[in-house]
Amino acid sequence: MSETKYRYGIIGTGIPWREEGSSGFGMAHAHYPSMMKNERAELVAFSELQDSRAQYFQQKQNTKVSHYHSYTEMLAKENLDIVSICTWPHLHAEITVAAVDAGVKAIYCEKPMATNWGDCKRMKAAADEKGVLLCFNHQRRHIKLFQEVRRAVQEGEIGEIVQIEAECGNLYDWGTHWLDMMFFYNNDEPAEWVIGQINSSTENVAFGAKMEDQAVLNFKWKNGVRGTMVTGDLAKIGAVHRLIGTDGVIEVLNERNYRILGKGIGEWKHIEVPQGDWSDLALAAKDVVRALDEPGYKPLISADHAIQSTEIIFATYRSSQIHGRVDLPLSYDGNGLLDLMSAGAFGK
Ligand SMILES: NC(=O)c1ccc[n+]([C@@H]2O[C@H](COP(=O)([O-])OP(=O)(O)OC[C@H]3O[C@@H](n4cnc5c(N)ncnc54)[C@H](O)[C@@H]3O)[C@@H](O)[C@H]2O)c1
Fold this sequence. Notes:
There is one protein chain. The protein folds into two domains: 6-139, NAD(P)-binding Rossmann-like Domain (Rossmann fold), CATH 3.40.50; 141-274 and 306-342, Dihydrodipicolinate Reductase, domain 2 (2-Layer Sandwich). The protein has helices spanning 28-37, 51-60, 71-78, 92-102, 117-130, 144-154, 175-185, 280-293, 303-322, 336-342, and strands spanning 6-11, 41-47, 66-68, 82-85, 106-109, 133-136, 161-168, 191-199, 205-206, 209-210, 214-221, 226-232, 241-245, 248-252, 257-261, 269-272, 326-327. By secondary structure, it is of the alpha/beta class. It is built from ten helices and 17 strands. The strands form three sheets. The chain has a nine-stranded mixed beta sheet with strand order 16-15-14-13-7-12-11-8-17, with helices on one face. It has a six-stranded parallel beta sheet with strand order 3-2-1-4-5-6, with helices on both faces. A two-stranded antiparallel ribbon has the order 9-10. The site of nicotinamide-adenine-dinucleotide has 26 residues, from loops. Nicotinamide-adenine-dinucleotide (NAD) is lined by residues 11-14, 23-27, 47-50, 53, 71, 86-89, 91, 110-111, 137, 139, 173, 207.
């Protein structure tokens, strides 16, 4: 392994959640220390449209590296190895393609991938064509509890897995994490079809992207396991995730606790799984660097995984639009939710 540090840049710093002037979570303030923790990269520049946010970043993170307004100028001048994309999702595809064209080695992009299915495919194809490592921040794959649940399933503690369920506030923003976890539990099997229904009678927007306010979906993986998710304020399955096997059940209660009713266990057994010194995000950043150090190693947050779970989101929107099952691969490149909204399908 070379001791030369990777040249690292960030696009879109923001300001952390609830702090004055914030427009979101300021995820760059989490990417930067996470990337620095493994000491294999050095920040050489960042790009941010707003001067006040750029100054805040320099002060808060105690760095004097160059600030660019234009990310294209930064990409052209700074010869970056790794770039974090921390803007809102409508910009992820165009920035990813620009970073690939500029010759970066790795892109660590925030979730969700993009705002329509065509852009998701476009950004992944661009990276694949040039051999650029593309990752999306589905950092929950690095939460120890979820890894422990996956291990329990794979080692047959609830028999053969049959069904995986999840609930959350929405399919697009939070659901991208939970669908990713469902694929993670099921060993990243490809999915075969999706049938879903969505509603959008209230304004529901996250990071500039419109979302459904209620959804129910069911899908089948190629290994026969079924996935079910419900979203919105009315969603209720009685757990965060539920994994049903032929000989037992696991219920994930939160990111530190789960319970299992497994083979030979007569009553629920509660298990707490501490995260340890490395946060999920720091481990995710470390995994990105590892993939650069070890060609052929696939990080847990690889785009190869993200594209599978993201396809379920847009296939659900499409399913609702066509009133039927959608067989994968999804051929419709748009966003069925936005189509339905502009056609007045939800009474607006
Ligand atoms: N992984 C997670 O757990 C998690 C949590 C929260 C948010 N996110 C995701 O992170 C992304 C960013 O969200 P956020 O809350 O950090 O946003 P934010 O609003 O806090 O920061 C985004 C910044 O990007 C800047 N920006 C916009 N266009 C730009 C451009 N062309 N060039 C340079 N800078 C530009 C904005 O000025 C803003 O300061 C979103 O996709 C969101 O879904 C992920």
